[in-house]
Specification:
heterotrimer, A: about 475 residues, mainly alpha, about 0% strand, globular, B: about 180 residues, alpha+beta, four-stranded antiparallel sheet, 5 helices, about 45% helix
Chain lengths: ~475, ~180, ~1050
């Protein structure tokens, strides 16, 4: 436990006590759903329903309902896949990497961020299924042999790497998230007034009783999981980027992709977390837990990653020219000046220009600006993937095969499906599980919040000793 | 089994006080059964004299297993069981095996370690561990003494110790187990 | 007709007792089936408890299998196998295709009694094994579900007895009433049919009128006037060093283009040590295959054609310049080259104007070509239409003096400009009969339809050229209640004949006697039928011991057709000259409309053929309709926005005729010329083709009764409506990329690898060839212990005709997907012929490089799976659905494919095709594979691909397998040339060499050995895919 410094802003405002934390956060779990929540949930369900209809059509009638053709074999499907995976990176990143860096400000956002990760990865996975010509055979991508003997999968194929990466990532994220939930579930269980919730949360709480021994195990587990998730989260988008980097298509075959994709993922992920947290914060009145300090530090990371992505774009261009490869060079000239120039420049504006506004402190700390820019960034990141995929494919080596791609209502509908899925899941989470990690917030409340009337005196009295204790611990 | 166990429960309002209390009480030679807190209190395991968790070793073992399995799987399927000409690459194109091996390592390590943790702490779906004071998951810090284990002190002495060490209240609890 | 059931075996047809008995049983093979005792059937089985348990067990197994597999369709086995064929073994029957004046001697591949593929007959001296797209597609026309299922009387199904009675009466009435009786047909190339017609004519007093929708009456009359022979001479382009073509698309559609391509290709090949090459000059108004393959091409105005021909004549004979010929440079150069190649040159014109053809004859005569490259002694008989006669028929028809008219393979109501007069006239004719085997514009107006067999169901013969004969034999028993036309004719004049006997008798009486190396008729007949051709003077494979005998026999025939007679030119040049100068160069400021035959549709008799409808035009790369081809300047003037296949509608006005039609910008077209293809706009035909495109026949003009295939004074107005034309290629230039490598002939002579591009990469060791760099050590995976299949394609002899595309579709069950899907860029063809125009823009100005130049050079590049040894598609497939065989083939495992399309994305050649929908049995794609009859054309050796899987060229793996098995049965290695892919087999110009690169003696190994440091290159060598398909550089014989 560090001693509160005067420079650092409080991470929890409003002089909250431990009790307040519990009450504030359990409130929306225990109370009846608010009107705004119900409205939002109904909207989400409607979206999901329409999306499901489109999805069923593409599955029953055929992928021909999409705008793809012999030249452009991937477009919205893989664009959306990469986009969602990218978004799915923030959660683990926040909870893992920031945990390793002991960034205490992460505590009040990591829970929701991790949930978002899981749902985003689910959406991404749905596109892996969707884009297959014969999705009912998706399990053939697992090393199961086959009915006629030993026909295995192709471990040289980046798609198989994807299968392993995405499934591992999903599993580990779920585990990480759930382990973190256990103590809070126990809290809810112990506060539960009616049988049902006592039973349900009791089961979910795995019988947790907050014993010091369990806490110490719990902490090392979280620490190791964080240690594992950090390389994992980096590997996932690296592998996704290899779908393109290991191919031979000009504009795809690029060694810069892994770092560039990871940066992009963090970029879009943080943007999405911001958009969602700003809404949650407003809806559930969590202003004291998600403070300007949080928003500001997230914005700083967005500016950083945004700039990295921008540099990547420019580097690509330079290398394309410097390599002296005719096809490579044309691929990039075509991106910026070909039929899809608008997509390219949309990407540039949204991803490279807009985050630079965060250099201005007032913008950085303005809720509205933050929200708008975070949305813009996600639009931009969607365009990035579209540009990479479509503009590289539609004019590759042999001019006779050059073609254009235009989305159909089913391309759009299947994208809408993923939104429906995502928001439905997220709203359910927000209603029935604590959106903020109570245990962790409690752990920092004294060090990181305004002086606490109850514990203040003793804390100061014993201040010195703890520091040693903590030090011996680190 | 009808034999009952009696416990003495000290309830504290603040983690630092709790820490102090543990030190104080343990120096008096009282055996502390366990402390229950709403959040991980730093230094409490030192105070209670707990050793460092061996979970990291478990994690490493599981991870190693994962790597081995993955590499074996890939070599066996592509190299031995049915070698095929895939894009003119050698049957065992090792660089291509790295991603899967890595993912398997992480997966095994994570699941294995978490599993070990749940087993070791006796946690799991539907598991019910004794909750001495429900507030311990809210804002109270609870210190539990097993009377049998501290038979050389009388219950009064013990509750006195607890009060002295700053417990806001002291209750006794009998569990028929 | 929808509830009609098609027989699946002779038993069903003949209602075989065994068959009927077992047809309803699920397992009609006895459990212990004894091949030696075919009569053993379920009856002999004692159903005791054990059998019951067996059945039970099997039932359970079957059910559980059926649960996870597609249900097994019932198949009735032969209980008594017809001795002439074995299930799964293909039988080949020699036969003859003749339609729209196109002749090909063919081999028909049949499986289980179904013709499924047409192959060229190598024994024929005419087409020498080559076939065209239309010939390849003809097998599908057999299975057109919209054919007449039986005789029709006034539009309703009738019976043969009723029809015969009515027709015979009608004929005798007409005779009695002294009215004229007409038998109207397109050119009849069959001697026996002509005999039958003659007999019918004498008996019924009928007049036989032949006409050709693509008329060459001008040539016929010109030759009559010049040499006293009303015939098309036999050209031999293989002997020509210089060829000059005025509007004659002899590589695409003109007269006998398939044979001509084969001949001309001989002069373009620069392999096997051959270092000389012909030179082709093309003067044409629109871009044709001939112009596209010409070394020198000049876009001329159609209405100036005569002047250019005259200019050439003058340039040769030292006459003066011709007024109206601006810039005669190319004419002079052509003249110079022609004079250098006297007797080894050919000048042709596609004009149907007698005067122009007279001048052309004069030129060829002056150059002494008649002795060598042009043979009038043994002329072609494939075009005999007489426009004048046909005109008189129309007069009589309109005059109402016609008592009966019979249409035999003729559809003038569609394919003649006087269609209105004819259809009006027909109403008043008491008796009108059509032999059409499927509905057409004329048949529906005729009182009776006596459907003829499709040629694959019929007996027949043909004499495409004096002294060359071939036979047509049935390869399937008639699918519908149709009847051989000749038999009908005879029946109506009261003679009951079997045309088969009639044919035999005729051959016995006429041809058998002309030879004497078969000493009994049966042998003569059997061998001729087996070979398909009888060419006493040609290179008959079964020569007798005594060569001189052949010579004498040949001589006999040749004399019979006055072969050795020398022809003295007797044409009246001055009058022709004055006529030409008077009539040409009068185009005015209107546009010339040029009406041409398209390679796919010809004159439209096979319009309802999905394969042909979806065949991209070799030049425009568009399909599924015809369109008005515009010069770029005009398009700009009309403000037409043309991008990615999107274009606009224009109105074409000619006098009082106006049609609205989509426009297509065609580089290389003369600025005052617009073009429109024949063969489209059928009013009455099958579902697929009815009312698709516009009928250009209605726009034909006539000059002294001869059809003229152009009109002057056309007016074109733009319309605001936009329109989509289905293109398979929307980018027309090669963007300066080395995918095409070409050189000029003289450069090539100096440096055999001229024009080759060798990619290099900078490394620490300096520049190294790109192909030498690899992440992997050269392992053993690419060893080829047995065969190593590969292909070499000679860009210099590929003329782009597209026959391979249809042959491939036919061989590999490639589905037809329809216009909308082609618009979506989802055509399924496994082989495509990329067509590139040259661009004037300088390299680097990419947007300008996308525009073809106005007078572009053209190159065709057949493109199919390159079977890369380092295949990018294989590496990325997650489920190993595409892997490499030990024989160097990139193999696609359809039933393992899950359809991620990663392979297609990663294919640098973009040759993979994805099944976006389920095309068979899908009413949204109601083409041949959507009905039982149409599906009979499917090749049983090739999987019909399911929805959601990837497919691509397999190098006809099933043919390779067949060849290997045949060789194995005879315990030998496959012989070079024994195994040919469908595309290599069909190619008229033999541009595709397929074979075993492991066999040093194979022709492909020889070509590779000879050319590897010269013309041989592989696509995109820089990305190191190591393709198994190589290309030989394009060489242009120009300075």
């Amino acid at each position: 436990m560090q001693v509160t410094s005067d420079v650092r802003e409080p991470l929890v405002t409003g002089g909250k006590t431990l009790k307040d934390v519990t009450n504030d956060i359990c409130r929306q779990v225990e109370g009846r759903p608010s009107r705004s929540w119900i409205i939002a949930f109904v909207l989400a369900l409607i979206t999901l329903a329409y999306g499901t209809y489109c999805l069923m059509m593409t599955w029953f009638v055929g992928l021909g309902l999409w705008g793809l053709n012999k030249t452009v074999g991937w477009a919205w499907d893989i664009t959306n896949f990469v986009w969602w995976v990218g978004i799915g990176h923030a959660g683990t990143l926040i909870s893992a990497i920031l945990l390793l860096f002991r960034q205490k400000w992460r505590t009040s956002i990591n829970r929701a961020a991790e949930a978002m990760t899981i749902f985003a990865v689910l959406c991404a996975a749905s596109f892996i299924l969707m884009h297959m010509g014969r999705p009912w055979l998706a399990y053939w991508t697992l090393p199961l042999g086959n009915t006629y003997g030993s026909l295995w999968v192709n471990f040289n194929s980046p798609l198989v790497w994807d299968v392993f990466a995405i499934s591992t990532y999903l599993t580990v994220s779920v585990v990480f998230w759930y382990i973190g939930l256990i103590p809070d579930l126990a809290t809810i269980r112990d506060r539960a007034t009616n049988k049902v919730s006592r039973l349900v949360y009791g089961t979910l709480a795995f019988g947790w009783n907050g014993a010091a021994k369990d806490w110490s195990r719990f902490e090392s587990v979280s620490l190791i999981l964080a240690g594992l998730s950090t390389p994992l989260v980096l590997s996932v988008h690296t592998i996704v980027s290899m779908d393109f980097a290991t191919s031979i298509i000009p504009g795809w075959h690029t060694t810069i992709f892994p770092p560039y994709f990871v940066a992009g993922a963090i970029f879009s992920g943080f943007a999405m977390v911001l958009s969602l947290m700003l809404i949650t914060r407003y809806v559930f009145h969590l202003e004291d837990y998600i403070t300007y300090a949080h928003i500001e530090s997230m914005n700083k990371i967005i500016t950083l990653t945004g700039s990295i992505v921008g540099i990547a774009y420019i580097t690509e261009f330079f290398i394309a020219w410097y390599s002296g490869v005719e096809y490579e060079g044309y691929a990039f000239i075509n991106r910026a000046s070909g039929p899809y120039w608008w997509a390219y420049w949309a990407m540039m504006t949204c991803n490279v220009v807009s985050p630079q506004l965060f250099w201005i402190r007032s913008v950085r700390r303005s809720l509205l600006a933050t929200f708008v820019i975070s949305v813009i960034v996600n639009i931009g990141m969607w365009f990035e993937r579209f540009v990479i995929i479509v503009t590289s494919l539609h004019r590759d080596y042999v001019p006779s095969s050059w073609a254009m791609f235009a989305p159909t209502r089913y391309d759009i509908g299947d994208y809408i499906f993923s939104f429906g899925l995502f928001f439905t899941l997220f709203l359910l989470f927000a209603k029935f599980l604590p959106v903020i990690n109570m245990a962790e917030v409690k752990a920092i409340i004294k060090s990181a919040s305004e002086p606490d009337p109850h514990a203040g005196s003793k804390a100061s009295k014993l201040g010195g000793k703890e520091v040693e204790v903590t030090d011996s611990n680190h | 089994m009808s034999d009952s166990k009696k416990y003495l429960i000290g309830v504290y309002d603040d983690d630092t006080v709790l820490l102090e209390a543990i030190y104080a009480i343990r120096t008096k030679g009282v055996k502390v059964l366990e402390a229950f807190t709403p959040f991980p209190v730093h230094g409490i395991d030192d105070a209670l004299g707990y050793k460092r968790s061996r979970l990291p070793i478990a994690a490493f073992m599981f991870g190693a297993t994962g790597t081995t399995c993955a590499i074996c799987l890939q070599v066996l399927t592509l190299g031995i069981d049915w070698p095929m000409n895939i894009g003119g690459k050698p049957n065992l194109a090792y660089p291509a095996f790295i991603p899967v091996s890595f993912e398997a390592t992480v997966l095994f390590a994570a699941l294995g370690m978490v599993g070990t943790f749940l087993v070791a702490s006796g946690l799991g779906p539907g598991a019910q561990k004794t909750v001495f004071d429900p507030r311990s998951s809210d804002d109270k810090f609870v210190l539990v003494l097993d009377l049998e284990k501290n038979s050389k002190f009388s219950q009064e002495q013990l509750s006195l110790f607890l009060k002295e060490s700053g417990a806001s209240e002291v209750n006794d609890k009998e569990i028929i187990g | 007709m929808s509830n009609k059931v098609y027989w699946r075996g002779y038993e069903e047809l003949t209602n075989d007792v065994e068959f009927v008995k077992n047809a309803d049983k699920e397992f009609n093979l006895p459990a212990e089936y004894d091949p030696s005792n075919p009569s053993s059937s379920l009856e002999n089985l004692s159903n005791n408890r054990r059998d019951f348990l067996k059945m039970l067990g099997f039932g359970a197994a079957a059910v559980s299998l059926a649960a996870c597999e597609t249900p097994v369709r019932k198949a009735i086995p032969f209980l008594n196998k017809p001795e002439e064929y074995d299930p799964t073994i293909a039988n080949y029957y020699a036969s003859t295709y003749f339609n729209e004046g196109e002749y090909c001697s063919v081999l028909v591949k049949t499986r289980e009694g179904r013709p499924i593929k047409i192959e060229g007959n190598t024994l024929s001296s005419i087409n020498k094994g080559a076939t065209s797209a239309k010939v390849q597609a003809s097998v599908l026309s057999l299975y057109d579900k919209e054919r007449y299922t039986g005789p029709q009387a006034s539009g309703k199904p009738s019976t043969w007895d009723v029809l015969d009675k009515a027709v015979s009466e009608g004929l005798s009435n007409a005779k009695a009433a002294g009215q004229k009786v007409y038998l109207v047909s397109e050119t009849i190339v069959s001697p026996t049919t002509q005999k039958a017609i003659a007999e019918f004519a004498t008996a019924s007093g009928a007049t036989h009128v032949q006409y050709d929708p693509a008329s060459v009456d001008g040539i016929l009359s010109a030759n009559l006037e010049s040499f006293g022979v009303r015939a098309v001479p036999a050209y031999d382009f293989s002997k020509a060093k210089v060829v000059v073509s005025f509007e004659a698309d002899f590589l695409g559609t003109w007269i006998s283009s398939t044979a001509f391509s084969r001949q001309f290709a001989q002069t373009r090949k620069l392999i096997n040590g051959k270092k000389e090459m012909s030179r082709l000059f093309a003067f044409e108004s629109i871009m044709t295959l001939t112009g596209a393959n010409a070394d020198y091409r000049k876009a001329i105005r159609k209405s100036d054609e005569g002047l250019y021909v005259l200019a050439l004549y003058n340039a040769l004979t030292g006459g003066g310049a011709v007024a109206g010929v601006k810039d005669a440079k190319l004419i002079e150069q052509a003249a110079k080259d022609l004079l250098d190649a006297r007797g080894r040159s050919i000048v042709v014109s596609g004009s149907n104007d007698k005067n122009i053809q007279l001048l052309v004859n004069a030129i060829n005569n002056f150059l002494g070509n008649y002795a060598s490259t042009i043979d009038l002694g043994r002329p072609l008989l494939t075009k005999q239409g007489d426009d004048a006669k046909f005109a008189s028929f129309i007069n009589d028809l309109s005059g109402g003096s016609v008592g009966a008219v019979i249409f035999y393979g003729a559809n003038p109501v569609y394919n003649h400009p006087d269609a209105d007069a004819i259809s009006k006239g027909l109403k008043s004719v008491p008796l009108s009969v059509s032999f059409a085997d499927r509905p057409d514009e004329t048949a529906v107006l005729s009182k009776f339809v006596a459907p003829d067999h499709h040629y694959l169901e019929a007996w027949g013969d043909a004499s495409p050229k004096k002294g060359v004969y071939s036979l047509t034999q049935p390869t399937i028993s008639p699918i519908f209640s149709t009847r051989q036309a000749q038999e009908s004719l005879m029946k109506w004049v009261g003679r009951d004949i079997s045309y088969y006997e009639y044919l035999k008798a005729n051959w016995k009486s006429t041809l058998y006697s002309t030879q004497n190396w078969y000493n009994n008729f049966q042998d003569f007949w059997n061998y001729s039928l087996h070979d398909g051709v009888f060419e006493p003077s040609g290179n008959n494979p079964r020569k007798p011991a005594d060569e001189t005998l052949v010579a004498s026999v040949g001589a006999a025939i040749v004399d019979a057709v006055a072969g050795n007679k020398t022809f003295n030119f007797a044409g009246d040049i001055p009058s022709a000259t004055s006529a030409v100068t008077a009539e040409y160069g009068k185009g005015g400021d209107g546009f010339d409309l040029v009406i041409y035959e398209s390679v796919a549709m010809g004159t439209g008799s096979q319009a309802n053929n999905p394969w042909l409808l979806e065949m991209p035009d070799p030049i425009t790369r568009a399909c599924w309709e015809n369109y008005l081809t515009l010069p770029k300047a005009l398009a700009e003037k009309l403000g037409l926005k043309v991008k990615e296949g999107k274009t606009g509608l224009v109105t074409l006005t000619l006098g009082n005729q106006t049609i609205e039609i989509p426009a297509l910008v065609q580089p290389g077209q003369h600025a005052q010329v617009v073009g429109l293809a024949l063969g489209w706009g059928r009013e009455v035909t099958g579902k697929a083709a009815t009312k698709i495109g516009k009928n250009a026949f209605a726009l034909l003009a006539k000059k002294d009764n001869r059809l003229q295939y152009f009109r002057t004074g056309a007016k074109i107005d733009g319309k605001s409506e936009s329109y989509d034309i289905a293109h398979v290629q929307t980018h027309h230039t090669v963007m300066g990329r080395p995918v095409i490598q070409e050189a000029k002939f003289n450069e090539y002579l100096k440096k055999p690898n001229a024009g080759r591009y060798y990619p290099v990469v900078q490394t620490a060791e300096g520049e190294v060839p790109a192909s030498t760099l690899s992440l992997w050590k050269a392992g053993s995976v690419n060893d080829r212990p047995n065969h190593s299949w590969g292909m070499v394609i000679d860009l210099n002899s590929c003329f782009g005709c597209g026959a391979c595309v249809i042959a491939c579709s036919s061989e590999n069950n490639v589905p037809v997907v329809g216009k909308q899907e082609v618009l979506n860029r989802r055509e399924m063809h496994w082989i495509r012929i990329d067509r590139y125009y040259s661009s004037d823009a300088k390299h680097g100005d990419f947007s300008a490089m996308e525009d073809p130049s106005d007078e572009p050079e053209v190159v065709f590049q057949p493109m199919m799976c390159q079977h890369c040894n380092n295949a990018p598609c294989e590496t990325v497939c997650p489920v190993l659905a595409t892997t490499h065989s030990t024989e160097g083939l990139n193999q696609m495992t359809y039933n393992r494919c899950i359809g991620t399309r990663y392979c297609a994305n990663n294919c640098p050649y973009k040759v993979r095709r994805f099944n976006w929908f389920s095309y068979p049995k899908n009413n949204d794609y109601d083409y041949n594979v959507n009905n039982d009859l149409g599906r009979m054309v499917l090749n049983p050796d090739v999987t019909v691909r399911a929805r959601g899987v990837m497919e691509k060229c397999s190098m006809c793996i099933q043919r390779i397998q067949e060849g290997k098995l045949n060789a194995k049965k005879e315990a030998r290695r496959p012989v070079d040339g024994e195994i040919k892919t469908a595309c290599a087999q069909v190619c008229p110009s033999e541009a595709i060499t397929f074979g075993d690169m492991g066999d040093a003696q194979s022709s492909i190994s020889k070509v590779i050995a000879e050319q590897k440091d010269e013309r041989l290159y592989y696509m995109l060598e820089e990305i190191n895919t190591k393709p198994g398909v190589g290309y030989l550089t394009k060489i242009r014989n120009k300075a």
